[in-house]
Design brief:
Length: about 425
């Protein structure tokens, strides 16, 4: 039993990488993920039997691994990805959460959803087509959402005779485009998802490629430094007061650390009240912790009994977030009804809920050329633009570039309670 517990704890302590896949329709995203799962021995026998049966019914000459991720019946019928499909697998080195996002232009909002929590983006390019409009679109969104690691997989190399020259052409073309983006770490890998070349195992068909396989890259990319461990931010999600016989006076503040490092004994400030105290304990479900950092979920207790409630933020007195009601941000519009230039919306920022009014639409972005569109300020479904809002309550925020958690806002339709926009504070 002890051995099983040790193995379970080892698994829980493993590093986690969240990554998203993107590309145009038929670039092979679902096939790539299926190949990754199959070659890394992450598929159960009964799953494989169902996929083989589905492949036979469709008349495929081979086992269609793309069916592993196409979860909706409409997706399997059309052979495309519509919704964001999440898959989980692990190797001895790392745990993974994959968000397989759609390639169609009309599903850009789904890519934003899948990429919003990702550490890395795998962008597929068809070796025959090269860098196209959707490649630019997905790369820009990855950059906008603060993804620091991109792997450009040039897929279907088997259809261009595994040509080194063709791979270099595509790599150079993407390098030229990506120089305009804020993505510091880009890898280029020639693959064939259908036959498994350079996905999990090195390809014998491309001896000229001396780089790593996709799985090796995913296992070894370093993402710890992507989190902001400098600016201490703790949005309070819940105030825990058991009021039981064992804990008659217990008052804890539960939430997820959004940045920085907190330790017992640290002096902290509660916002918006401005009262200061020191951290007494930091607790998780299992034990007391010597420190807490992003993205840990913990409960803090303070030495002083001060008024703190949901939506407040605990920070360090000498390193506080911006405080304000006039916010400028880039917004990706997720709703069929366009943004109302003077509209009122509900918002959620960290754990705080408020309302806002749109004060100004600055411009829209042509996400294929990255140029500003000054004349056309109508922001509709899948559009990205820069807007200014005024909120009913002060927000405690950082720029999205500095901290993805405290720099993001969602806009919500007040009547239908539907999320209509995803915002990145500038």
């Amino acid at each position: 039993m002890s051995k099983n517990n040790d193995e379970a704890q080892k698994y829980l302590d493993m590093d986690l990488l969240r990554f998203t896949t993107a590309g145009s329709v038929d670039d092979g995203k679902s096939t790539l993920i299926g190949r990754l799962l199959y070659d890394s021995k992450s598929i159960f026998d009964d799953q494989m039997e169902k996929i083989e049966e589905s492949s036979r019914k469709k008349g495929d000459e081979y086992t269609n691994l793309a069916l592993l991720t196409d979860g909706l019946s409409a997706e399997r019928e059309q052979g495309i990805t519509i919704d964001v499909a999440y898959r989980y697998f692990s190797t001895p080195n790392r745990k993974f959460i994959i968000a397989d996002t759609p390639g169609h232009v009309q599903y850009t909002r789904n890519m934003v959803t899948g990429a919003s929590t990702a550490n890395l983006a795998v962008i597929l390019v068809d070796a025959r087509s090269g860098v196209i409009e959707q490649t630019c679109r997905h790369s820009f969104i990855a950059s906008l959402l603060g993804i620091k690691h991109v792997v450009l997989c040039v897929n279907k190399m088997d259809l261009v005779d595994y040509s080194e020259e063709r791979f270099n052409e595509i790599r150079n073309e993407f390098k030229t485009f990506s120089s305009k983006l804020d993505v510091p770490d880009i890898h280029y890998i020639p693959i064939s998802a259908l036959y498994g070349d350079n996905v999990v195992d090195k390809s014998d068909n491309m001896p000229w490629y001396g780089g790593a396989t996709l799985l090796y890259t995913l296992e070894n990319v370093q993402v710890d430094s992507d989190y902001n461990h400098v600016d201490s931010r703790f949005p309070v999600q819940w105030v825990t007061r058991p009021q039981s016989t064992d804990y008659p006076d217990y008052r804890g503040y539960a939430g997820q650390v959004a940045g920085g490092v907190f330790k017992p004994g640290d002096e902290v400030i509660a916002l918006p009240s401005g009262f200061t105290s020191k951290i007494d304990q930091i607790q998780t479900f299992e034990q007391d912790e010597e420190e807490a950092f992003s993205p840990m979920s913990v409960t803090m207790t303070l030495e002083d009994d001060i008024d703190i409630s949901r939506g407040d933020m605990i920070a360090k007195p000498d390193n506080q977030p911006e405080v304000g009601q006039d916010i400028e941000m880039m917004v990706c519009w997720l709703n069929k009804e366009p943004l109302d230039p003077n509209g009122k919306y509900a918002i959620k920022h960290t754990t705080k809920e408020a309302r806002c009014i749109v004060k100004e639409v600055k411009y829209k972005v042509n996400i294929n050329t990255l140029h500003r569109v000054e004349g056309d300020k109508e922001i509709g479904l899948n559009d990205i633009g820069r807007i200014k809002i005024r909120t009913t309550k002060p927000l405690f925020y950082d720029s999205y570039k500095r901290n993805r958690k405290t720099g993001s806002i969602i806009l919500i339709d007040e009547y239908g309670n539907e999320t209509v926009g995803a915002g990145m504070i500038l």
